[in-house]
Please model this.
Amino acid sequence: MAIVTPVEVAPGARRRLAISSPVTGEPIGEIEVQNASDVRAALERARKAQPAWAAQSVGERVRYVQRALGLLIEKQDRIVEVVVRESGKPATEARMMEVFAACDSMTYWSKRAPALLRTERVPLHGLLRFTKKLEIAYRPLGVVGVISPWNGPVILSLDPTVQALLAGNAVLLKPSEVTPFSGRIVADLFREAGLPEGVLELLVGDGETGAALCEAGVDKISFTGSVATGRRVAVACAERLIPCTLELGGKDPMIVCADADLDAAAGGAIAGGFLNSGQFCCGTERVYVVEEVADRFIEKVVARTKALRQEASGEFDVGAMFWPRQLEIVARQVDEAIAGGATALVGGRRNPRLKGHFFEPTVLVGVRDDMALMREENFGPVLPIVRVRDLDEAIARANDTSYGLGANVWTRDARLAGELARRIDSGSVCINDLTMTYGVPEAPFGGRKQSGVGHVHGRDGLRGYTQALPIIRDRWGGRQAATHYPYGEAKDQGMKKLIRFLFGTPLGRWLS
Ligand code: NAD
Model:
């Protein structure tokens, strides 16, 4: 049973893909894969529409986002239904991760964008303050390509799209072929909100469409997905000398200190490990707990994991894996770990009771750092727990990875928490909570090492969809330029004196 299967088509016709449910295997629908000429046509429409969109004020653009937000709230049940059908997530998880997060993103950026995108006056230093004035205008880049993955099909399509639109760009959105109907929701909302034609173009398809988008001639790519694809996107953007942000995979560590609230930490471990069936870029993938409290912590995690309900319908806590290929990766890593000496205290296998793509919530001990489970991204409901002598060992092992997306630390000692956070080589760190940085739009969100390039949130995340244009005005009507030439001994000596004064005397240094 595969979720995405090619459909036979007549020679020369566009490729078609059939999508089936990860829960029941029942067909959900088919998509036609848009090719390079479809992408070029969409880009042409976007290019035509963008100048008028950019000419509107940010406040006017906010009104479209607000209308789309109203529609999202009104249609939330239907949206949850589409996401659940396509992904097998519990409805509460779909509402939390997709609808709540999308509403928060639209509200946050609508409120902040006008101020963040306003032309800024920046005071100048040294002698420049007497001669020049600087303002920085934030101009749209033009047309932005947004490429999104399947694990958060609505929010990871919507959030970059909203920011790029508010900044005055047109957007070509290419959601994942694994969740095309959830990805389409974003384009539908904005269409119904009356967004001018061409300002947001939906591209339906798979890697072929995504690659064509990177090559089509857009002005930036905002990519969220795997490291392997991210690298291809980076190469394509480098060849065209266009910027890209890459939000890639993770191998997030969790560190449990001896003074941690162990009930809270156990709850955080299972939420971090099993949220979205572990298909969460900032999911907890490795737990390092200090020896003193390891037995008690593991006991609590095991008890809580055993209480989780995994079902195909009704009320349940842990849903299906969205994608059979991911399920195979998870099963291979867990099988290899068990064959190599690890023990599954709970789970450890595909759920034999359920027909769809379900992997049991799993807690493993006795894992080694050289196991694939501890080195590759797992992206499944699997929580390997490692005992460590002390916090130095915890930090060293947490940092021994090619990834660096999120991390979380559990302790009652605020000073220690801050100190540990600064020693973890990661894009962000959360204290006494699972990694939820993506849900905090004020925080710059991005990865270290293979986890990505650039930031998607925070002030610079939004401004990343613009060109910062410095405009430098002369205070004296340009009279200085009139005396630039000729050079000569007198000018040279004057410059020498000025250098000595400005950078070599206390008064000069104060002025500089
Ligand atoms: P993926 O890389 O397979 O696909 C992502 C998107 O890229 C899809 O839309 C796909 O069609 C498209 N694509 C495929 N080949 C392409 C190409 N050559 N050029 C351009 N686009 C192409 O990733 P996935 O399996 O859909 O998503 C899971 C991955 O995403 C995990 O590694 C996860 O950690 C990561 N992720 C990261 C974040 C983050 O913010 N850092 C968030 C969510 C998911």
User: Anything to note?
Assistant: The first strand starts at residue 4 and ends at 7.
